[in-house]
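Supplementary Methods. Inverse-folding protocol.

Structures were first reduced to a discrete structure-token string of length 370. This string, shown here, constituted the complete conditioning input.
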């Protein structure tokens, strides 16, 4: 298979590196790392095959907005009114249509978007199977809730009016609400609370400043900058709010990620929670461009340079395979990293992820794979 040959070839290219960082041999990487898988919301044979390997200890379901632009949101509203004569009460819901596979840990994302506190509380209950709704029995309840601010168009007003989002719930608000709901018995007492971070856009100076704060920051103090699908927040605030795991966006800007990780280590945050690093399986230059835009770094010089390097490559598939292998090895060599969150969003990237499992680059911990 072409992708398997590429992976096999690039495993030996240990001299290739990002930003001059040393690449470790796969055999030297500890096999105790956790792997989680970003699941598809639509039936996908490749997605199911990945999950069926048993290599992943957890599966994460995203909570996507109905639209990410005002044009898309207007189109959505028009379609809803034409179809139903009004907005659907089930916006943002999805069902698991996958074939049975390994149980693992089920992590369901709850995005604040532009929902009210009552609506978000219901979404949490529904994700945990605690809401009184018949069709919720069709999907396994969440073992953990992953909280994000979201990328609803309303949240983008923050770029024009810096204080506009103070009336919208943040991921920290969701963490605090969930902790209160657990104490009140509205959520299962053993459900874990997960938070997200974007090291690519979180300057180390700002991170240290936030981490040194003894009290949680108020909205006017940190509601600034670009609002991303996974908005960066005060890491200590999220941990104090009850987060047991921090899930990051992919480390595309390696120098920024290393500085962020170093600051995190200095503040001893990893003694209080686990760090799982997001790992996209790049499959093309277009796929890289998609991820850079999603992470909010497409206009940064380092990202532009990375994209140009991929664009000039004589063999784009080879370049993607090299980047995937090198980045996986570098991330797993860092102290305090509990594991990787594999985000293979195309069929091609899912096939490449399977090859990375077979070759041992992704530390599945499984003796054999199909």
């Amino acid at each position: 298979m072409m992708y398997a040959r590429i992976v096999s070839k690039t495993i030996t290219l240990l001299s290739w590196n990002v930003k001059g960082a040393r690449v470790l041999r796969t055999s030297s990487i500890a096999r105790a790392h956790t792997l989680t898988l970003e699941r598809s919301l639509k039936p996908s044979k490749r997605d199911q095959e990945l999950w069926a390997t048993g290599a992943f200890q957890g599966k994460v379901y995203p909570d996507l907005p109905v639209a990410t632009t005002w044009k898309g949101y207007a189109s959505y509203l028009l379609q809803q009114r034409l179809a139903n004569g009004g907005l659907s009460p089930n916006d943002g819901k999805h069902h698991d249509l996958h074939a049975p596979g390994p149980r693992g840990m089920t992590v369901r994302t709850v995005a604040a978007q532009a929902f009210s506190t009552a609506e978000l509380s219901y979404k949490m209950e529904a994700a945990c199977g605690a809401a009184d709704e018949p069709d919720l029995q069709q999907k396994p309840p969440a073992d953990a809730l992953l909280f994000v601010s979201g990328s609803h168009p309303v949240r983008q007003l923050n770029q024009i009016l810096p204080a506009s989002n103070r009336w919208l719930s943040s991921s920290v608000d969701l963490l605090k609400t969930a902790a209160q709901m657990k104490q009140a018995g509205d959520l299962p007492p053993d459900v874990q609370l997960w938070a997200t971070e974007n090291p690519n856009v979180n300057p180390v100076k700002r991170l240290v400043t936030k981490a040194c704060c003894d009290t949680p920051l108020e909205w006017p103090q940190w509601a600034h900058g670009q609002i991303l699908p996974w908005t960066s927040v005060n890491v200590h605030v999220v941990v104090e709010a009850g987060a047991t795991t921090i899930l990051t966006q992919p480390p595309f800007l390696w120098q920024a990620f290393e500085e962020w990780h170093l600051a995190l280590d200095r503040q001893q945050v990893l003694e209080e929670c686990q760090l799982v690093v997001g790992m996209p399986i790049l499959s093309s230059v277009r796929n890289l461009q998609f991820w850079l835009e999603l992470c909010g770094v497409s206009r940064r010089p380092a990202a532009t340079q990375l994209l140009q390097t991929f664009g000039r490559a004589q063999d784009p598939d080879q370049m993607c395979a090299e980047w995937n292998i090198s980045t996986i090895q570098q991330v797993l060599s860092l102290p305090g990293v509990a594991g990787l969150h594999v985000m293979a969003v195309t069929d091609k990237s899912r096939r490449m992820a399977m090859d990375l499992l077979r070759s041992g680059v992704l530390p599945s911990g499984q003796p054999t794979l199909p």
